[in-house]
């Protein structure tokens, strides 16, 4: 199977100019979603490392594992995190997470890709399998408003309207995998963060 066929739907890495315009303060987002110093965090589908670098800065003596299916993205993520000594890298499929992570972690972070996962509950079970008891799974998602309404630098951005998920849609597919919603965080202008605790 070709790499393109294994990528999650509508989750390609966007142009950096609009990505930075949409997320001018990645460190603030990471803090809002309760990542704490000393944790071990998996950045699932880390892409070019924009949030991975912010997580690394937040963790201090902790450790972030950036995982992506695309080798070119991992190389970009490594460059983005240059100078941080607490980053590790895994090339692999998120749907095989429990076979890729060798010891339980405190937190799994997934930003802007959950909407494209074909079997969201199966992925959530993979996440649950690598988390310590009462550890967290955070999903950053686009609100289900039309793509025409989500303008960045004057252009419609983000996934197709029909792929966007409400907070209830997200709960409905994650909680059956062994989670409970702990907290919802508003991430203006177009996103929310859903923090789930492993039960």
TrEMBL record:
Q: Name one GO molecular function term.
A: demethylmenaquinone methyltransferase activity
Which part of the chain is the Methyltransferase domain? 41-133
Which keywords does UniProt give here?
A: Methyltransferase, Transferase
Superkingdom, according to UniProt? Bacteria
Record's Pfam families? Answer: Methyltransf_25 (PF13649)
Main enzyme class: transferase
Q: Which GO terms describe its biological process?
A: methylation
InterPro entries on file? Methyltransf_25 (IPR041698), SAM-dependent_MTases_sf (IPR029063)
EC number(s) reported in the record? 2.1.1.163
> Any idea what this protein is called?
Demethylmenaquinone methyltransferase
Gene name for this UniProt entry: ubiE_1
